[in-house]
Amino acid sequence: MQRLAEDRMRQEWVTFKADDQKRWTNYTLSHDETYREIRADIEKITEHIAGLDDATQNQADLLQQTTDATEKSLQELMNWSHEFLSNFERVMGHSRPNK
């Protein structure tokens, strides 16, 4: 009777260990799959952010170029206006009224 109880206990222990190993394996596989999915999502987000950084830098460069061109054009317009006014004063023989 004792031997049968020990054999049954050993068999239950072996069954328990096998079930425990299956549960652990399933947990590990599930965890690894979730981890891979998260890493793939992070990689996609990282690539998207890199694209946004590139687009932002391109826009910043374009804005700087536009600002520089506008500043240059306004400076040329101001120089032209000054030259025109100086020529007008010289031709008319009088200067601008001072305020």
Structural class: mainly alpha
Runs in which pLDDT lies below 50 for 5 or more consecutive residues are none
Number of strands: 0
Shape: rod-shaped
Strand content of the residues, in percent? under 5%
What is the CA-CA span between the terminal residues?
Answer: 123 Å
Arithmetic mean of pLDDT: 93
Rg, Å, rounded: 41 Å
Main sheet overview: none
Treating each run of at least 4 consecutive H or I residues as one helix, how many helices? 1
The assembly state of the depicted protein chains is single chain
Helix content: over 70%
Order of helices and strands: H
Describe the protein's architecture and organization.
The chain has 99 residues and is mainly α. The protein is 92% helix and 0% strand. It has one helix spanning 2-92. It is rod-shaped. The termini are far apart.
